[in-house]
Amino acid sequence: MTFARLSWLASATTACCLAGAAGAQPSNDTCAGATVAVVGANAGTLVNANSEDSENSCEGGGGADIFFTFVPPATGAYSFSLCQDAVFFDSIMSIHTGCPTSAANEITCDDDGCGFFRDLSVIPSVTLQAGLPQPYIIRVSTFSAADDGASIILNIGGVSNGACCLFDGNCITTTSTSCTAGVFQGTGTACIPSPCPPLGTCCNADQCCSLTFQSGCAAGGTWTLGGTCNPSPCATPANDTCATATPLVVGVPVTGSNCSAGDDQLLSCAFVDPTNTHKTVWYSFTPAHTAAYTFNSCGTSFDTTIGVFGGTCGGLTEIACNDDSSSTGNVVCPGGGILAGLNSRIPSLILDAGTTYYVLLAAWGQAPAGGPYVLAAGAIENLGACCNGTACTQTDQTRCGQGTFRAGDVCSPNPCLPQTGACCAGATCSLTTAAACTGEFRAFAGLGTVCNVFSSSNPAQNRTPCCLANYNQSANPVEPTVQDIFDFLTGYFTNDPLANINGSANPVEPTVQDIFDFLTVYFNGCAG
Fold it and tell me: Which residue, among 251, 275, 252, 239, has the nearest Cα to 361 in the 3D structure?
C-alpha cells in the first residue's frame, strides 16, 4: 500500500476537499441509491461521499464509498477499471451480489491493480451471469477514512459472447474463454436455432473415450456418431487379463494405456477400500537372478496402484502392493523426483530366479478414467554371477554372501569354472585356454579338464581327456585310423614336438621310443 503524497498534490487535494466540504453528497452515496452502470464509461465522484461502513476482503476500513448497479447483457467475462492518467487517489473496488455490501456477498475485490496509475483499482476479468433477479452491486471507495476521493470514470468492458456447444448436448451463451466444457461456435452466434453439430464418441490413439464432436476428435482418433463411453467402445489393451500378460524386463520401462481396460484383480493396499482397484493391466516378470527388485509407475499422470502376485493366473497370491509409497502421499521416484499422491512404488521385493510373477497396474478410485501410463521394474543392486567354488548362481551382491561376485556375468557358460583346460595336440596334451588351443592337429577338451600323461602300463590313462592315438584329432576319435600313423610319422621325421608322446626330457627331437609308444596306444585304441 502506497500512502506517500507529493506535497503539491496533498495541498491541492486538501484545498479541493475544503472547497467542496459544503457540497452535496453524490446521488449514489448509498447502496440503496446506486446508479445504473452499463458497458462502457460511467462517471462518478467520491467528493463529499460518506462511508456506509461496508466491508470487503481488501479494504483498509472506513473509506468513503459510492455504488453502481450492473446487469450484464449476457453471461460472460467483464472487466471493471478505474485506471486514469489524471486521477490520483487510493481506491478500492469490489463487486457484490446485493445490499448491504459485505465480505460475505463479495464476488471479487481489487486494491492497487492499476499499477502505474497510482493506487487505483482494476478487475481485469470476472464472469457474471445474465438473467439474475437482482443486479450486481459495484462498490467504489477510498482505501480508508484518511484517503481523499476524487471524480472517477468506471469503465466496464464486455467480452464478446457466443454459442458454446457443451459435450453433454446442451448449448449455452458465454465467452470463448469460458467455454471450457464444449466447443465455442464463434462471437455473435446464438443457441436458437442450435448451431451445434451432432455428438459422438472419440477413441483417441491411447484408446481413451470422450464425448465430442467430429471436429474435436484429434488426428489418429476414431469418431462414431452417437454412443456412450460407458461402456467404452474403444479397444481393450492386449494385456487386459492375467492370461495375456505382457513380459516385463528389468531396466526397460514399458508404456501403455488402461483407459479401456476391465476390472480384474483387487489389491489389498488400494487406499480405503480394495474395490478402488480399477482398469487393471497385467505384466509377467521372470527374473534371471534371485535378487531384490523394485517396481514403480513414475511418470504416469493418474493415480495408480501396483501389485505383485505369485502362483498361476488361476490361483494368484498377492505378495506385495503399493498405493502411495509413504504416509504423506509422496512417492519418491528414481532420480529423486517426487510426484505427490499419484504414482506407486514397491521399494524392494526379493524374487526367485526362473519363477514367473505377475505384476498388476491399476487406476485408483471409485470411477477413475485411467490413461497413458509408465511401468518399470528395476534391480536394487547390480546383478551378476556368484561363485562358490565352481558352483554358480545368478543373484545380486548382497545375496552372494561369502562367494565371489562377478557383476554383469551370467552362469551360462559357467564363469566359476577354471578358465583353462586340456589341449589335445597331436600325441601330446598341454593345459591352456580354448583360444590358444587352435590350429592343425589340436582340439580343446573343455574348461576345467586336466591333461592325461602317457602310460605304457595303463592304457586307460592314454584315452581321457585326450586320446593320444588320435594324432590328427579327427572328429571321430573312437578308434584311431591309419591316417593317424602317417600323420604321426610325418611329425616324427620333421622333429615336431607333437610327436613326443612319452614326454621325454628333450621333446625337440622325438626319439625311436616315441614310435614304439605311439604304436602301443594306437593298438590299444581310443574306446577302451
Answer: 239
Residue 491's φ and ψ, nearest 5 degrees, are -65, -40
CB 453 within 8 A of CB 427: no
Using pLDDT thresholds of 50, 70 and 90, give the confidence band for residue 153: very high
Mean local confidence (pLDDT), 493-498: 92
Mean pLDDT of the chain: 87
When pLDDT is cut at 50, 70 and 90, the band that residue 11 belongs to is very low
Contact 346, 322 (CB under 8 A): yes
Residues of the chain with CATH 2.60.120.380: 25-158, 242-379
Q: Round to whole Å and give the CA distance between 60 and 112.
A: 12
Three-state DSSP at 203 gives strand
At residue 84's C-alpha, the angle toward residues 83 and 87, to 5°, is 115
pLDDT above 70 (res 448): yes
How far apart are alpha carbons 95 and 107 in whole angstroms? 6
Calpha distance 450→453 (Å, rounded): 10
Residue 12, pLDDT score: 38
Q: Is 490 helix (H, G, I), strand (E, B) or coil?
A: helix
Instruction: Give the mean model confidence (pLDDT) for residues 174-191.
Output: 82
Place of cell 585356454: 433
- 25-158: CATH topology is Jelly Rolls (2.60.120)
Note the pLDDT tens digit of each residue in 241-280.
999 999 999 999 999 999 999 999 899 988 778 888 999 9
Grid cell digits, residue 372: 497413458
Return the CA Rg of the chain.
45
CA dist 118 and 365 (Å) reads 51
Task: Give percent above pLDDT 90 in the chain.
Answer: 59
- Give Cα 24 to chain centroid, integer Å: 67
Q: What angle do CA 38, 162, 195 make, to 5 degrees?
A: 150
Q: How many CB atoms lie within 10 A of CB 389?
A: 9
Distances (CA, A) of 95 to 100, 125, 151, 178: 12, 12, 19, 19
Cα angle 445, 447, 449 (rounded to 5 degrees) comes to 60
Does the pLDDT of residue 19 top 80, yes or no?
A: no
Say whether pLDDT at 91 is over 70: yes
Closest CA to 208 of 99, 28, 363: 363
| CB atoms near residue 341 (< 10 Å) | 13
Relative orientation angle of helices 512-524 and 482-493, to the nearest 10 degrees: 170
CATH architecture for the domain at 242-379: Sandwich (2.60)
